[in-house]
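> run fold dTDP-4-dehydrorhamnose reductase
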Amino acid sequence: MRILLTGCHGQVGFELQRALAPLGELVAVDHADCNLADPEAIRHLIRAARPNIIVNPAAYTAVDKAEAESDLAFAVNAVGPAILGEEGARAGAFIIHYSTDYVFDGTKQRAYVEEDATNPQSVYGQSKCDGELALALVNPRHLILRTSWVVGAHGGNFARTMLKLAAERDSLSVVADQWGAPTSAALLADVTAHLVRQQQRSPESFPCGTYHCVAGGETNWCEYARHVVGAAIKAGKPLKVMPDKIRSIATADYPTPAKRPANSRLDTMKFRTTFGLELPHWQRGIDHILQQILSTS
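> ok
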């Protein structure tokens, strides 16, 4: 089995290299190897690699910057997956693609299920939504995993930012009215490897489609920051800010170019029952990541 992995140096891609390596011949590429904004480059890559499975965590993820770079965001997040799907279908390849809570407007009171209507409120969200639709249209042999608040030990992310700021500043203010589940890149990678094995064992009966895949539990950004800082202090990291000194603020007090969903909670019942997998609580994944970050800082 030959697996083509895009975005191999990103948070999820980095973990996927580890998780997918034992499953077959892994062809791992990043932006320098293939620009996903270039349809011809994508076509050349897939025709040269001749993969059985394509795993695509690569994306344009600069949420605020996307408001001013909409052409690039749509090229990578919408057109790119369409070309991957089209060429994958031509090669007979199954494709796994990752999407986001930003496809929803965040106004629902409960967790979103897969069948809820999408209504993205940002360029980033719309580009990812269009990518889902385009991929599903051109390649029925697909799996789309919507996730949220991804964090890994490799690369920049919210946890690293909070640790840096807590070491430099005497006070922090963090938004407390946006809710979701911080999801470990390692969890996504391990889940993906399990799904690849399932698909290879039963390709004809594999339940293709769109699923929500996030860690268990829920929190807001402020409580998330307090957890990160508290864990770091407990581990002996010298920080200026204590968890109880991190002030909660409203989204309105911290304006950004792109609108964020107030409710990023994704219901994972369909995923868990279909694939027979459990998704551990978000704190478990974050604590493991913090151990890795703190051991090298």
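The mean pLDDT is 96.
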